[in-house]
Amino acid sequence: MTSDIITRVKLAARILLKGTSPSKDHRKDIPVITPEEVAQIKQFFPLDKFFIFGHARSGTTLLARLIRVHPEVHCNWQAHFFTRPPLLESLVADPETGAWLARRSNRWNEGRDLSPLVLRAAGDFILERQARTLKKRIVGDKSPNSLLDGKAVTHMHAIYPDARLIYIVRDGRDAVLSHRFQTFIDATQHLSKEDWDIRAAFVRHPEPFLQGERSIFTEKGIRCAAEGWVRNVSETSEAGKEIYKDHYISLRFEDLLEDHWKEIGRLWKFLEANMELPGLEEAIATELQQNPDADWQQQKAGEIALSLQKGKKDSWREMFTTRDREIFLDIATGALQAWGYSAE
User: Fold this and answer.
1) What's the whole-model pTM score?
2) Which residue, among 230, 220, 221, 219, has the nearest Cα to 331 in the 3D structure?
3) In what order do the strands lie in the sheet with 73-77?
4) Could you tell me what percent of the chain has a pLDDT over 90?
5) For residue 312, pLDDT beyond 60
6) Under DSSP, is residue 121 helix (H, G, I), strand (E, B) or coil?
7) Domain 34-271+285-338, CATH class in plain words
8) Spatial distance between the Cα atoms of 5 and 7, rounded to a whole number of angstroms
9) Residue 310 CB coordination number (10 Å)
10) Structure confidence by residue, pLDDT tens digits, 321-330
C-alpha cells in the first residue's frame, strides 16, 4: 500500500511539473527484428542490403560513387536511417503508435509488436524503390555516423541484422580539417563569432592558414574535433566487429586513393557482386574523372574553395600549426597508430 501511494505521489508530481504522464512521454524499448521476421520481410523486399558508415569527411561519398558503378550495385546517400536524429525508429517512437502496433486485440500482429517490421518495411522500400528501377540486386546507403558513433551500429543491427556494414576511416587530422572547411562553406549556421572571425580572416588572407602559421581552429574546436574522431573510429570499429563479425569490413581512405581497383574490388567481393563482369576497372577510372563535391563547394563559397585542394592526402602537414599538432596527438595518438597513421 505504501509503495502504491509513493508511486501515485511521484506520478502526480510529474504531471504537475511537466503536464503529462510518463506513458505519454516514453514508450517501452522497440523490439529488435527476429530472424523469422527478417525471412518474412525478405519475401517482399529481397535485395541484399549494405550500409556505409564513416566519420564526416572521410571519403564516404567517393566510396559510394565508386561502389555503385558496378552493374549489380546501387548506393545513394544521406538517408541517415541510424546515424542522425530523427532516426528511422522515430516512425514508431510515439507511445500511442507503439500501443497500436502491439495491441492484443489486433489479430494482424500475431501477438507481437509490429514495430520492427514496420521499420524494416519502410527502410527496404526506400532502398529498393530506386534499386529496382535501375535493375540492381544489391543496394545500400552511405551516411556518416559522426553523431552517434558506435550506437549507430546497434540501431542498424536492430532492424538490419542480415545487412553488411562497410566502415571507411581517414587520417583524423585530414578528416577534421576537411570538416572544418565544409562547415565554413556549407554549415555556417553552426559557427560562433570566433569561428566567423577566423573564416573572414581566411577569406581575406589565406596564406598564413595554408602554411600552418595561423590555426583554422579554435583551441576548443580542435580538441572537440579530435575527441570526436577518436570516439567514432574506436566505437564504430569495435561495434562493427563484435556485432556484425564477417558482415563487417573496413578500409582506409588513403588506401582507396592509392589503389582504387584493389579496394573497390575487395568491397565488391564482400558484397558478393559478380567480379567477372567486363569493364569494371574502366568504369571506376571514368567515375574518378568527376568531382561533384568540389564543384558544389566552388558554387557555394568559391572564395574559400579556390584555396583548397579536394581529397588530398596529408593536407594537415601543411595547415596544422605546431599547437594544432600537439593538441591532436595528445588526444588521438593511440587511435592514429591503431589505424596505421603516423603520430609524428
Assistant:
1) 0.89
2) 230
3) 73-77, 138-142, 48-54, 164-169, 248-252
4) 83
5) yes
6) helix
7) alpha beta
8) 5
9) 15
10) 999 999 999 9
